[in-house]
Amino acid sequence: MSQYGAEQIKVLEDLEAVRMRPGMYIGGTGQDGLMHLIWEIVDNAIDEHLAGACTEIKVTVHEDNRITVSDNGRGIPTEIHPEAGINTVELVYTKLHAGGKFDTGSYKVSGGLHGVGASVVNALSEFLEVEVRRNGKRYYQRFERGQKACDLKVIGEASDTGTTVTFLPDRQIFGEIKYDFARLSHRLKELAYLNPGLSIHLDNRITGIQRHFQSEGGIAAYVKELNEGRKPLHDDIIYFRDENGASGFVLEVAMQFTDEYDENIYSFANVINTNEGGTHLMGFKTALTRVFNEYGREKKIIPQDAENLDGRDIREGLTAIVSVKLRNPQFEGQTKTKLGNPEVQERVSNIVREQLELYFNNNPGTARLLLEKALRAQEARLAAKKARQLVRRKGLLSSSTLPGKLADCAEKDPAKCELYIVEGDSAGGSAKQGRNREFQAILPLRGKVLNVEKAALNKLLDNKELNALITALGTGIREEFDIERLRYHKIILMCDADIDGAHIRTLLLTFLFRNLRQLIERGHVYIAKPPLYQVKKGRQVLYLYSDEELKALRSQDGKDGHFEVKRYKGLGEMNPQELWETTMNPEKRILKQVTISDALQAEELFRVLMGSEVGPRRDFILENSDMITNLDI
Ligand code: TSJ
Question: Which is the most buried residue in 20, 105, 193, 369, by most CB within 10 A?
């Protein structure tokens, strides 16, 4: 009894800690935090699938923002937990990190911010209800803001087994609740590819979109989809899987080379996207480089006197997925998305070497083609390097040929300089007048021109607008990219807050992602957030950046509501002074730093928007309906 009391106090303390500092547990209380709540719950169902006990997962977004996640697994054990003295369901929901306690040796998805435990979701939800179907019975328990609202009870009979969880994120913590539907369906689709055979349903009652994700083809099918719209250099997807019975280590690789220049390698550990890479990715890359060079030398495809191929030469145009499953993943890095387990590198490297050698021996035609492509890439890289050295030596790196549209700044130290890329000539004009010309440069890009030509990204290099951008940045692109020559350390995309603006932003991000990726990786790229509303209250002028702020203002000032609200339709409507005040003044402006995962998403959106299939495009537009409502139809 006294032990139970102490246990209860600990639970309340934990709850309090989570509610006091939600960011520590779920990374924030914005979109990211909301997404974490969903993944935390979904991951539990995925774990059940990885344990071989669940084939179907259903996610429902209700009109009132409740989320339901349901699986057909074994059902959370309802028995009294021997150590804790309470039923296991309650344990899972009230004890921090309770997950591992009754782990059965499956591949827990407990990486990074995921795996903080269902109790964290519970603590941050207005309410959370669990239904467990098990032992022929339906059990039910409810919690409110993390605290038990009733004991686990039997509410009926069950003919199947499974777990259903429904929760409503707490508005006290998250404020207005707005899910990122594009992200939600992207990740569920990814999970379906990473777990072949698993059936995942998404029923979004807010948008009215229902989707079913299921792939028998797994990551090979994923690579195929990623390469849609590109020209593959070989028809087949190179695929292999290796499972080690003793350690339970699983490696899966799917890859295909295209005639593009960029490399797209996605790596996963226990189905978590390891954005920052890690030992599995290192192992893959070193093996790839080694096999290409060894095979190329052996077959005399690489000339005797030629340098070894560099990894970058080989990976040009490669789309690949490297997925590992292991028992004790260590996640490191800034966003906990880098796999740290040291033993993994050699394991992966050995398997990839063996399998790729096998593939090359069985497909000598493809092997030769890929090696010749890599040799051409090497040639181009070496030529570019030589040209650059030549130019350097001659001291011809002056900015004499900067584009005419660029209004450059006075400051010469790149670390202090900012480049605003502005949609449209009229907004560009206001920005030029409103800026601080000491350190802010303006490059207006005509959105229409970009939009017309967006169908063929390769052709973008012939596009005048983008050429001006490349010249202004100073770094060159792809193989010639040289970060040392970057002329501005902040590159700020300033687009209208409507769907056209979103289009252009997507296009620009995709362009940067494919051609100047380091700019994003190193955190040089930002998105400016212009205000949506101007509010005049007598002499006072306020700028509001979201509908929530407007709503808050209206409810606050409801009574003396004597104000004029103006909705900005675009940047062009702001005069130079306003633009400076709201969007360019470093003291007041809101900038969002673009992460590589933003860019990845933009890349995918781009493919969806430009792709040949109409269905996904329509779904995307519906899933981003908050942008649509901003349109003046
Ligand atoms: F954690 C949770 F509550 F958030 C949650 C758990 C949410 C959802 C949607 C599903 C689940 C969940 C848990 N689905 N299936 C399970 N399975 C178990 O907890 C379980 C069942 C049986 C055994 C066993 O050893 O017999 C072990 C486990 C871990």
Answer: 193
- Residue identifier of the C-alpha nearest atom 20 of ligand 1: 76
Percent of the chain with pLDDT over 90: 55
Q: What is the second-level CATH architecture of the domain 399-531+568-596?
A: 3-Layer(aba) Sandwich (3.40)
Give me the CATH topology for the region 218-386: Ribosomal Protein S5; domain 2 (3.30.230)
User: Given ligand 1 and candidates 60, 74, 114, 167, which is best to mutate, with the most ligand atoms within 8 Å of its CB?
Assistant: 74
Q: Please, where are the H alpha helices in 525-613? A: 547-556, 576-579, 596-610
**The pLDDT of residue 460:** 59
Nearest to 49 by CA among 61, 37, 58: 58
For residue 89, which atom of ligand 1 is closest to its CA? Answer: 3
**Chain centroid to CA 248:** 28
598 is catalytic: no
Cα 271 to Cα 9, 47, 268, 369: the distances in Å are 35, 10, 5, 32
First to last CA, the chain: 66
Phi, psi of 44, deg, nearest 5: -65, -40
Q: Name the catalytic one among 129, 170, 262, 500.
A: 500
Residue 305 bears catalytic tag: no
Number of the ligand 1 atom closest to the C-alpha atom of 57: 9
pLDDT band at residue 391 under the 50/70/90 scheme: low
Which residue minimizes the CA distance to atom 18 of ligand 1?
A: 76
Q: Is the pLDDT of residue 521 over 80?
A: yes
Sign of the alpha-carbon torsion through 240, 291, 348, 338: negative
Over the stretch 219-234, which tens digit does the pLDDT of each residue have?
Answer: 999 999 999 888 999 9
Domain 16-213, CATH number (from 3.30.40.230, 2.30.30.240, 3.30.565.10, 3.30.40.10): 3.30.565.10
Active site residue 260: no
* Distance (Å, whole) CA 19 – CA 168: 15
Mean pLDDT, residues 510-538 taken together:
89
What is the average pLDDT across 199-223? 95
Q: Which stretches of 244-333 are assigned E, i.e. beta strand?
A: 250-257, 264-269, 272-273, 277-278, 318-325, 331-332
On the question of pLDDT at 127 being above 50, the answer is yes
What is the C-alpha to C-alpha distance for residues 92 and 146, in angstroms, rounded to an integer?
11
According to DSSP, the β-strands at 338-339 and 277-278 are parallel
Token reading at 389: 């050295």
Residue 630 confidence class, pLDDT cut points 50, 70, 90: very low
* Element of type H or E holding 29: none
How far is Cα of residue 529 from the mean position of the Cα atoms in its chain?
20
Ranges of each domain in the chain: 16-213, 218-386, 399-531+568-596, 599-633
Tokens 């890929």 belong to 370
pTM of the model: 0.73
Q: Report which of residues 297 and 560 the model is more confident about.
A: 297
